[in-house]
Amino acid sequence: MRRVVIGATAVSMALSIAACGKAGDDDNDSGSSGSDNKSIGLLLPDSVTTRYEKFDRPFFEAKVKELCDDCDVQYANAAADPAKQAQQMSSMVTKGVKVIVVSAQDSAAIKSSIQSAVDKGVKVIAYDRLAQGPVSAYVSFDNVKVGQLQGEALLASLGDKATPKAKVVMINGDDADPNAGQFKAGAHKALDGKVDIAYEQSGLWKDTVAAQKMSAAITQLGAKNIAGVYSANDGMAGGIANTLKGAKISGIPLTGQDAELAGIQRIVAGTQSSTVYKAFKPQADAAAQLAVNLLEGKDIKSLATSEVTSGSGDKVPAQLLTPVSVTKANINDTVIKDNLYTVADICTAEYAAACKAAGLQ
Fold it and tell me: SS3 string of 330-350?
């Protein structure tokens, strides 16, 4: 009996030592599951903006799988909560994710989380929005150009009504998003001196807030005095369009961005004049290629050929793609040609007559 007890004790001690050794290895890796971990994280900012869940995520995951069949994509959505996104990044680092692609809900608030991740050996890629901190690369579009395209489309829709006295309402994006400032700068570049920006506010990327701001603009300026509306994206344009309809304002230009299905349908129906198409697949593919290269220790200079400076002063290698303005005239040649939507997607029963008139059949 004594021999059995001694033997059992020895086995127990051996297991304890092995367990302690394993825990020690995990501690040294700062939560890493080992050097052979091939996990890539994808953190997106919200689920309100249609593109992220419907396009960016599946395109990114598919491209990573194509490039690295044994790579694993860990995904999380911040639901428009910066604190939640910080927790998600910390959790991914703890799980041993080696490369994290993040579209920051708040570019400044995420800085400390990025620094902490980098300190633990994680590579971080800023996606669509330029996050502050030591990121390895940035993938987006030329966002000043996006705003410029929006402004130019508004002027084109105004035609000879585009005069320095024409009152235009501007509903910009969330100031916490660095892209919003770039869109705004580009739009002002196109509009300043050509029209009167009579009312300008942030819509926080929310249709409800944008609707409230539009209502305030109508009260301040008068329904008959508004020549056109700049909306920084399609989501807010939806809220603005409803407010305009409620105020019995029709036939004035309304811009957007992201080429959301609802935005395209409003363009067909004539309640929105334009949007900006930023092809989601090339952007997601570019981010996936950068992520896999960084994971495998490969060079990214041939991919990130530009350089941008973030709000924290960091110089970041960047891959900047070209946006395209979309109006009723080129829906066929853009979002339909790229298989983003089919004619059937756009031309539901509600829009059938308008689609026929627009030549979408």
Answer: HCHHHHHCCCCCCHHHHCCHH
Q: Report the interhelical angle of 178-191 vs 143-158 (nearest 10°).
A: 40
Select from 268, 273, 241 the least CA-distant residue to 152: 273
Token pair belonging to 268? 């067909």
Q: How many CA atoms lie within 13 A of 246 on its CB side?
A: 12
Torsion, Cα 194 195 197 202, to 10 degrees, reads -80
Percent of the chain clearing pLDDT 70 (strictly above):
90
Tell me the average pLDDT across 320-324: 95
CB 143 within 8 A of CB 130: no
**Burial class (CB within 10 angstroms; exposed 0-12, middle 13-18, buried 19+) of 310:** buried
Residue of 26, 63, 28 whose CA lies nearest to 42: 63
CA gap 98, 32 in Å, rounded? 8
In degrees to the nearest 10, what's the CA dihedral of 147, 151, 152, 155?
170
CB 130 within 8 A of CB 117: no
pLDDT, tens digit (0-9, with 9 covering 90-100), for 323-332: 999 999 999 9
CA distance 351 to 333: 19
Q: The pTM is what?
A: 0.79
Return d(Cα 181, Cα 107) in angstroms, integer: 12
The predicted-structure confidence for 26-36, as pLDDT tens digits, reads as follows 333 333 344 56
